[in-house]
Amino acid sequence: MSNEQERLKCHTQTHSYFPEFLNMKKLFSIRLGSLQAKLLVYLLLVGSIPLVCATVLFYKHSNEYAERELAGHVKMAHEQMLLGVKQAFAEVDRMTRSLAGDYAVQRYMETSPLRELDERAMKEYIDDKLRELPRQLKYVSDLCISMTAPGLMLCTNENGMLPDLVSQAPETLNRNDRLIEPVDAGDRDHPSDMVRYTIPLLDRKTNTSKGYITVLLNMNRLISAVQGKWTVDSHVVFDAKGSVMYRQTGDSAETEAAAALDFGRTEPFTLVRGETIISQNKLDVDGVDWYSRIQVRGQFPFSAFRSLRTTLIIIFASMAVLSLLSSFIFTRIVTGPLHRLRGLMKRAELGDLKAYWLGGGTGEMNDLGESYNQMLNRLEELIKQVKREESLKKEAEIDALQYQLNPHFLYNTLNTIKWVAKLHKTPQISEVVSSLVRLLQASLGKKGDFLEIREEIGLIQDYMEIQHFRYGDKVKMFYEIDPFAASCLVPRMILQPLVENAIIHGIEPSGREGKIHIKAWTERDLLFCQVEDNGTGLTEQTRDMLRETRELKERMSGIGLRHIREKIKLYYGDDGKLYVNGKESEGTTVRLTLPIHRNEG
Q1: TM spans, by residue (predicted)?
Q2: What is the pLDDT of residue 553?
């Protein structure tokens, strides 16, 4: 293959890929101001605002949560430590009472003299028992047995401070009593860390007190033993009176300030002050009413926050990608049907009224398409109606041209007849011609399309003057016109055709004396005009025709009920109504319901 052919092939492949590239570029391009761009911004805002609020709230409440968690741990550790102290005192009580009941101690308390050899052996035995307790319990500093009768005292450390304390004999103690009291160091702010524990030494035979067993406890060692690896910065033990029994404080000013809290407060509590937590609880040991207060300092566990920034960055990036994909998917779902609907509308603009929406979108889009289809149907009906009205208008113009007469010629001719009738002294013909002239002037004149009811009644009276010449007294007229209704406006010559129709099609065929009642009244904002006769009425077939076609085919002076309906519709639209009712041989009633119109003057 030549170089030219390879170049042409490469050029062809490039052009074949180029449209696909353009489609991809068009797919992933975001135009500012478009629905896609607005949706992307909206999704980012909707997703980021709750996340930012949650982050702020997390930062705000995390410290409080960490404080509560650490305070709970401190309280639990404090309770465990006090339980250990209680168990330590219980162990001391058990071992000292076991020592008090030992046979050698009981024998040594007897008043009967012992041989020197037996006394020496017994002292050595008791001394070994005394030294056994400090070896087992590291927090026991010294132990003494004092007997009141022989005046003897045995101690593990005869040169220590306990012999002097034992010499200060306590009050008489009962069998199960104990005495626990701090060793006075002479400094109220810095009390001694030693506590003296005393129980009575009872004679089993007489059950009387023969002395005391006193144990000197080192509280620092005891608390360190029960505390284990847990670090306490300050520990104060005080009684219900607020006197400090034991104090261990740190060197910082904050520790000293915390230790100086009100010792009159005895209920259990846990306080958080900055990075310091203070816990207070009751030391539940029989024979004492003491309270323990500890202080712990340390950093709260913020290790959970270290990866928060990285997590937030990942969440924001994921949310941006999801928002971008969601905007593309949403726009494809929404704008695709919108573009199709827009194309159909352009076809409709060009005259294609059959460009219907056939579905293929979301429920809302289908509803919009159905509304568009209804609009096309309505538009097509309106166009047909306009064409029909134009056709009727042309027919009316043709009819008007066919039946049009020259008004001036007609007036002059009738006036000539009237003067001839007067010259020949025939006044009836003159009156009939005068009435006919007024009717023609009202019908063909140009004084406006509306007349007052009273004027319309006058035209009816002129018409009846003409009919009287023909029918005589066979037809009688009755008028009930409300004064307010008399000044209301109606289309001219709207009632006269109804009277004519009543005479020609109702009274004349009946062959009996006719009566026509004309009424006009108002109710609320409506004007009612009614023409009622006692003629032949309406047959069942005629009523069915009125219900189905709402028009009569018969003609009356060239104007039928159909033309009256159209005239009312032309002037009033759907606000005007014409009702025809009647029964065979009982007469006919025609009622007009019109909106009230009056002259502005």
Answers
A1: 39-59, 312-335
A2: 40
**Which amino acid is located at 239 in the chain?**
D
Of the CA atoms within 13 Å of residue 148, those in its CB half-sphere come to 14
Per-residue CA distances from 236 to 73, 159, 244, 254, 470 (Å):
19, 29, 7, 15, 135
DSSP string, 369-421: HHHHHHHHHHHHHHHHHHHHHHHHHHHHHHHHHHH---HHHHHHHHHHHHHHH
Give the residue range(s) of CATH 3.30.565.10 domains in the chain.
448-595
Question: Can you name the residues that pair with 281 across neighbouring β-strands?
Answer: 292
Q: For 109-142, what is each residue's pLDDT tens digit?
A: 775 555 666 777 888 888 888 888 888 888 888 8
Provide the percentage of residues in the chain whose pLDDT is more than 70.
69
Residue 66 CA to its chain's centroid (Å): 33
The side-by-side arrangement of strands in the sheet containing 276-283 is: 244-248, 234-239, 290-297, 276-283, 269-273
Which position has the higher pLDDT, 49 or 235? 235
Domain 66-297 classification at class level: alpha beta
pLDDT exceeds cutoff 80 at 535: yes
Rounded to the nearest 10 degrees, the angle between the axes of helix 308-349 and helix 363-403 is: 20
Determine contact, residues 225/139, Cβ cutoff 8 Å.
yes
pLDDT recorded at residue 73:
86
Check residue 393 and give left, alpha or beta (phi > 0: left; psi -120 to 50: alpha).
alpha
Q: Where in the chain is the domain with CATH 3.30.450.220?
A: 66-297
Chain position carrying tokens 């009287």: 468
More confident residue, 155 or 1: 155
Beta-bridge partners for 593: 528, 577
Written as six digits, the tokens of 321 are 């990608």
pLDDT tens per residue across span 158-199 = 666 666 666 555 656 777 788 888 887 555 555 678 888 888
What is the DSSP track for 178-210? -EEEEPP-S-SSS--SEEEEEEEEE-TTT--EE
pLDDT of 271 over the 70 cut:
yes
Provide the pairing of β-strand 489-491 with 450-452.
antiparallel
With bands split at pLDDT 50, 70 and 90, how would you rate the model's confidence at 482? very high
Spatial distance between the Cα atoms of 362 and 365, rounded to a whole number of angstroms: 5
Give dist(CA 342, CA 586) in Å, integer.
62
> CA nearest 234: which of 218, 221, 215, 253?
253
Distance CA 246, CA 6 (A): 101
Both tokens of residue 273?
Answer: 């002050």
Per-residue pLDDT reduced to its tens digit, 484-503: 999 999 988 889 889 988 98
Sign of CA dihedral 579, 491, 440, 563: negative
Measure the CA–CA gap between 371 and 339, rounded to whole angstroms. 16
Q: Which CATH superfamily is domain 448-595 in?
A: Histidine kinase-like ATPase, C-terminal domain (3.30.565.10)
CA Rg, the chain, in Å?
Answer: 62
The pLDDT of residue 532: 95
Place of tokens 């009141």: 148
CA distance 265 to 67: 23
